[in-house]
Write a structure and sequence with these properties.
Blueprint: H1 5-10, E1 18-22, E2 25-29, E3 37-43, H2 58-75, E4 81-84, E5 100-104
Antiparallel strand pairs: 1-2, 2-3, 3-5, 4-5
The chain binds guanosine-5'-monophosphate and zinc ion.
């Protein structure tokens, strides 16, 4: 996707703070972190949103979920992290290339919401 910033990051055309990479995904730090640790886990394939994912993306979606474990381990927060996905503009999605927000690094217990 020519005008997608995450595709450009994946292609190495835009700089980023990469955390790790795996089978079909890459993890890099969010440019405007909303938690002490805030990493985006992004499939290398361009999919606009979770709501537009297809059955053919099943394996990749599974790999993204398991990638959270690996990235959390790398960050040293495997015992406590949150994963969030915004799907659609009215849900707060601003970059239309599917991504998981992985946040953590708090020193106190978080609420359920
Ligand atoms: P969304 O609201 O679509 O779920 O999240 C998009 C996220 O991407 C935001 O948290 C935003 O800070 C982050 N972001 C936007 N542009 C860039 C960028 O160029 N580089 C990085 N690393 N993160 C970005
Ligand atoms: Zn893209």
């Amino acid at each position: 996707m020519d005008d997608c910033i995450f595709c450009k990051i994946i292609a190495g055309e835009l700089p980023t703070k990469k955390v790790s990479e795996g089978d079909g995904w890459v993890a890099f730090r969010d440019i405007a972190p909303k938690a002490p640790e805030h990493v985006l886990i992004v499939p290398k394939e361009h999919i606009r949103s979770l709501g537009e994912a297809q059955d053919t993306h099943k394996d990749m979606l599974g790999r993204l979920m398991l990638a959270t474990r690996e990235v959390a381990e790398t960050l040293g927060i495997r015992d406590a992290y949150q994963v969030k996905v915004f799907s659609g503009e009215n849900a707060g999605q601003t970059v239309f290339h599917l991504h998981l927000h992985l946040t953590g690094g708090w020193k106190e217990k978080q609420s359920d919401n």
